[in-house]
Specification:
single chain, globular
Amino acid sequence: MATCLVWFRNDLRLHDNPALHHALSRADRVIPVYVHAPQEAAPWAPGGAARWWLHHSLQALQRSLQDLGTTLVIRAGDSLETLRTLAAETGAEAVVWNRAFEPVLAERDRRLAAVLQRCGVETRDFNASLLFEPGSVRTASGGPYRVFTPFWRACLRQPLASPPLPTPRTWPGTAATLPSLPVEALALAPQQPWDQGLRDAWRPGETAALERLAAFCRSGLAGYGRQRDFPAETGTSRLSPHLHHGEISPRQVAWTLRQQALGATTAGAYGGAEALLRELGWREFAYHILWDFPFTTEQALNPRFNNFPWQEPPGEPLSRWQSGRTGVPIVDAGMRELWHSGWMHNRVRMISASFLTKNCRVAWRHGARWFWDTLVDADLANNSMGWQWVAGSGADAAPYFRIFNPVTQGEKFDPEGAYVRRWLPELASLPKRWIHQPWNAPPEVQHEAGVVVGRHYPAPIVDLRASREQALAAYRRHVREGTGQT
């Protein structure tokens, strides 16, 4: 073909990019395009932290393309009309892209492809964001899995890691003469400078993603199995925002991990590679659930919980949880880390979500919405499944009677209180015996540490023991009575 448009979306990379590889191998002229159309993702348009990341990721992709002698053509508006216009401007015979698996975007892509094909423009799409296509991993009866472990076993019976596609070294043709918006015109970056914490914590872009993976394999993989649950440690890969924005592919990660496992000289390195690969499996599972049950972004997978008596409106418990003022240190530390850096350690995500849904009985949808707006790795599939898992209403869900105790969780996974002290400096002088339960510290200990509960740090918004019992009673009553079954 003479000219082909490559439509970039959440695949902002040059390496292991199937749509790009296809175009470069067949076209005389390849034009990279990004169409800014957040309204087409409604009601799940990117949140504030994700927009910040997208701004910098697009800039990084633009620089990489310029190094190859071309430029990213940026337009804003309706995706179909923009692509039709670009095809007419350039004489493009084809448009290629990598698939989106979010329900609204997948449906948009189907409609768009049909219209372009009727207009005489060839379209091709590829899987670049998952190891396994939704629908390709099924139970013996042909249905979708709802439990992770058998799902992942089925995945491991299929070919898992193949070599990633290479990064292009040359580029056919150029797009430099086409009208294009600057990244700044998309208004993704904040107008007010609230993003210093994000800038301190992250470096978006494909190069940074590959460097982070390499660095983690060198220094973090061997200890991953032991350290991944301790939020004060640098024990996780922190690849999730790079995966979400497509700056690195799951195939690249899986291939690298398999090579690491094959070359491992210690049990820790081998186990770390397998453990991180399993975490990729959870990401796969979330997308498969979303594909088969698209309503789970708003409704419970288990219909029994659709009419559960949540506290509505959520009121003060939600606002204090959002601002990290619940009076429960491990929860508040996580919420302040989230607000500052756009990220929260996974163990603390579970503890914080359990506190909101179980102790405060605020509906999981409110928590999911807040995470969606504040996480740089806000991923519709993972976010929805994770919140429903904690609430007890989703796939592979924690039983309703599993309620994380934030005090014992803090004492187990932050034993010295280093994580709490970092994010709650007002508690920094408390002895570790009381760091996770300052309300129980004797008055003289509070005064000596300079933190009087109720004055310098809030008292808990709920009694942990009483709220746990109330939640259990509400869940038992709801399950027994069958309320909400459809």
